[in-house]
Amino acid sequence: MNELRTICEDGDAAHPSVLILDQTRLPAQTAFVRLTNLEQAAHAIRVMQVRGAPLIGATAAYGVALALSEGIALEQAIDVLAATRPTAVNLRWALERMRRVLEKSAVATRHDRAWQEARAIAREDAEANAAIGRHGLPRLQAVGRRPVQAMTHCNAGWLATVAHGTAIAPIYAAHDAGVAVHVWVSETRPRNQGLLTAWELAHAGIPHTLIADNAAGLLIMQGKVDLVIVGADRIAANGDTANKVGTYLKALAARAHDIPFYVAAPVSTIDFACPNGGAIPIEERDGAEFGDKVSRGDTPVANPAFDVTPAQLITGIITEQGVFPAAGLAAIKR
User: How many angstroms separate the CA atoms of 157 and 229, rounded?
Assistant: First the structure.
């Protein structure tokens, strides 16, 4: 599908490193950054050189491996990485997985075991996302008109994962299966991450149209949208879902006009220890992301990075295990 990779190992045993696609430079420039230590990995997550819950998790796992390569203690590495971004649960999930595995390993073998486990996390993410595409494909095939008119929000394509994407995976699968699809891509202010989705779709040859975030409701009301598919940064045990801010408004519009609203995410994004959306921490980012004219003025700025869509507004959650009702996540194998 794509010739680029968001993350891959580089270097050698004596000088291990990880290469990431620097997403802060996209779509204007395709550039890579080499990570050689813990602080560089934490910085990449914090400033969104890597972004998207699954990719954040994979990067954090590699960050632990890099930390052990430079002689930093496991707990210190986990503490540093855990503090980078609070909402995306894959970050914590990957770090806890690394902790469980490495605590069972002899200290002398931890370095090699850390790299093995990071590789496994990356490989499994790619496999899970491919399965999400397969399970989501029938939802697009069932739409009666062609091209299928899909809407998404933010970027949940392969740029947000190790491969394939989450919300965009069914769209890629439909395109590969010969199902004509057109995608409405909301720009996703203030970081304009919809531009990354547009960049992806253009490279894949999938028709799409970039829209202002607030145009979504009008297009849905006009009958120009058949279904909405978005990703997730954390899904609570009851199905409430945190995703990039602006998602909730699309869910409300979809419900008002009786069109399906799907969330696509790997099982690792479901936080079974989180009872509901009210318990999901919402990251508040710097007002500077609004631009200098706003952030340097006298007007206070609020910049929540995510909102929460209640389970009752979600038609289904597409995972690598299949499609589940938002209120039926207890049936998922952990």
Answer: 11
Which positions ≥6 away from 142 have C-beta within 8 Å? none
The pTM assigned to this predicted structure is 0.93
Note whether residue 130 is domain-resident: no
Question: Catalytic residues, which ones?
Answer: 233
Asked whether 252 and 70 are in contact (CB, 8 A), the reply is no
CB environment 47-78: b (16+ within 10 A), e (fewer): ebbbbbbbbbbbbbbbbbbbbbbeebebeebb
Model pLDDT, residue 1: 42
> Are 217 and 195 in a shared domain?
yes
In the three-class reduction of DSSP (H, G, I as helix; E, B as strand; rest coil), residue 316 is classed as strand
Domain termination residue (choose one: 101, 125, 149): 125
For 173, the domain range is 136-331
Confidence of residue 3 (pLDDT cuts 50, 70, 90): low
Cα three-residue angle 182-183-186, rounded to 5 degrees: 155
Q: Which residues pair with 306 in a beta bridge?
A: 244
Within a domain: 114: yes
Pairing of strands 270-271, 234-236: parallel
